Amino acid sequence: EVQLVESGGGLVQPGGSLRLSCAASGFPFRDTPMSWVRQAPGKGLEYISGINSYGAITHYEDSVKGRFTISRDNIKNTLYLQMNSLKPEDTAIYYCSEGNMWKLGDSRGQGTQVTVSS
Q1: pLDDT digits (tens, 9 = 90+) for 44-67
Q2: Which residues contact 51 (CB under 8 A, 6 or more apart)?
Q3: What is the spatial distance between Cα 58 and Cα 25, in angstroms, rounded to a whole number?
Q4: What secondary structure, in 3-state letters, does 25-77 show?
């Protein structure tokens, strides 16, 4: 059974940083492309970043490019999202997803809440 458990969210001031983690199990993580998506209040799911199975290829949507960095540790079966220069419009529930690096994949975790506010 695929399990994805996100953590690391919280309340941060504009301009601050957070590092999200996604612990994966139940599938061959090291062979699986991964992505991060988010859902802001009252809005649909938004794909923001993806990474291939080896971690050599990454992609970012314009809304986060230059501020967020996706990475993975295939030994620890963990996906990361380093978020810098956070803005109020980054407030959302953040989910990791498996199976596709270019969009929402086959499944996602329960999410972690990120709130950017002064």
Answers
A1: 999 999 999 999 999 999 999 999
A2: 33, 34, 35, 57, 58, 59, 70, 71, 72, 79, 101
A3: 21
A4: ECCCHHHCCEEEEEECCCCCEEEEEEECCCCCCEEECCCCCCCEEEEEECCCC
pLDDT of 106 higher than 90: no
Question: Sign of the C-alpha dihedral, residues 17, 30, 63, 43?
Answer: negative
Q: Helix, strand or coil for residue 5?
A: strand
Paired sense of beta strands 92-98 and 18-25, if any: unpaired
What does the pLDDT look like over 73-101, one tens digit per residue? 999 999 999 999 999 999 999 999 999 99
State the pLDDT confidence band at 72, using cuts at 50, 70 and 90.
Answer: very high
20's tokens: 């999200």
